Amino acid sequence: MVVSVAATGPGTDAEPVSSTFFASRYVRDPLPRYRMPDRSIPREAAYQIINDELMLDGNPRLNLASFVTTWMEPECDKLIMGSINKNYVDMDEYPVTTELQNRCVNMIAHLFNAPIKEDETAIGVGTVGSSEAIMLAGLAFKRKWQNRRKEQGKPCDKPNIVTGANVQVCWEKFARYFEVELKEVKLSEGYYVMDPVKAVEMVDENTICVAAILGSTLTGEFEDVKLLNDLLTEKNKETGWDVPIHVDAASGGFIAPFLYPELEWDFRLPLVKSINVSGHKYGLVYAGVGWVIWRSKKDLPEELIFHINYLGTDQPTFTLNFSKGSSQIIAQYYQLIRLGFEGYKNIMENCKENAAILREGVTATGWFEILSKETGVPLVAFSLKDSSRFTVFDISENLRRFGWIVPAYTMPADAEHVAVLRVVIREDFSRSLSERLVNDILKILRELDARATHAVRVSSATAAQSDDGVVSKKSVLEIERDVVAHWMNAVNKKKTGPC
């Protein structure tokens, strides 16, 4: 690459026309980190500098921690780049983009069996992700509950929401930001989703809704929304309350209709009043786009909808942010009409089969216990049968040597003692990659096992004396972990600002 900067005379510090970037001063000068530089640099140099730094990022295709789409067809990439300069909020200026969003809302509403006729308009909105979608749905539940309590002459200052402890952090954000008590159903070993029976027991007159998860982040499992609906219906009859259900289908909303059409989790259940889904997960669109659909117009309080006219005609809006790009909405519409029901079904079946292959391979190692279910989001969550010699965190760290990003984490309360690895199977994760991952895991298991065995043999290398004078020996492996923990603690103390 040539940095095209012409010399202007003797003494100039401009680079010669023939100079390449790597022969220029730009590779010697320190990069700006905290202050804007005083002088401009050539566009080619700016590109190369940033591109070289980005080489140190992980490979998105090997990021098995994420549910988010990392590959789309070239034709859709062109549509995205062609609309990247459109601000979605300018509905009067970009009416076709607005129409495409409305088409997506209606297609998704019908996919979720909303009780609307073919010629009726569904109630929903595109968002920047499921986090915003959940905030909007939660606000609608809170406002409806407040209005009902005011009509009854009852206090409305202590709303709560019931969820499982396995919910994504956006639910905790909603509760904290909008002053709603979060009542969590604790987990237990072997049962890592919300128990509908316990959830309904926690419901009271201040509950604005019960949130069920269709595709738990931890294990991919679908919660039993139908049982929750039946139990909550009975409780509402007994108490006279009207507690509804929201389904967080961020991961599973674009899976269940294609793989498990007989599963009742959506608007077929009377108490389900709203559903969110992430278009940028199994909706097969790049980040970030989400959707929230309401059962009917009466489930979205009118006072939450703003009407503006300073961008042209009257425009209704119900979002937390204002400006946002149009590209992802256009990309969602592309996927819906390009793939159709048949295409989505084929992709989800492939993901499910590749997850099964990976599950078999992990099981065949003999080291792991599979915690995820075969029905649910196509992922494999597994824990070590014996963590005395090394942990899942050791495995996760070593997998990065091969380029794989596989998260290790502990379960929420009351199952914190269970630590797992989780591999998410996306559209672009093939069977050959699955087999390669298992081979790399086997290599790491052998290395860690050999190191642990060696550490036991030389465990007399050091000894530590306790307060009571008893000398206890530490293995080499324990020493290594102590040293790593010491330096990690030192690094963490130097970190500043929010994560």
From TrEMBL:
Recorded superkingdom: Eukaryota
Residues annotated with N6-(pyridoxal phosphate)lysine modification: K281
Claim: Lyase is one of the keywords in the record: yes
Catalytic activity: L-glutamate + H(+) = 4-aminobutanoate + CO2
InterPro entries assigned to the protein according to its UniProt record, in alphabetical order: Glutamate_decarboxylase, PyrdxlP-dep_de-COase, PyrdxlP-dep_Trfase, PyrdxlP-dep_Trfase_major
EC assignment: 4.1.1.15
Cofactor annotation: pyridoxal 5'-phosphate
Alphabetical list of CDD domains matching this protein: DOPA_deC_like
Entry keywords, A to Z: Decarboxylase, Lyase, Pyridoxal phosphate
Gene3D superfamilies: 3.90.1150.160, 4.10.280.50, Type I PLP-dependent aspartate aminotransferase-like (Major domain)
Keyword Lyase: yes
Pfam assignment, any one: Pyridoxal_deC
Enzyme class: lyase
GO molecular function, one term: glutamate decarboxylase activity
Segments forming a coiled coil: none
SUPFAM superfamilies: PLP-dependent transferases
The family this protein is said to belong to: Belongs to the group II decarboxylase family.
The protein, known as: Glutamate decarboxylase
Species of provenance: Urochloa decumbens
Lineage: Eukaryota, Viridiplantae, Streptophyta, Embryophyta, Tracheophyta
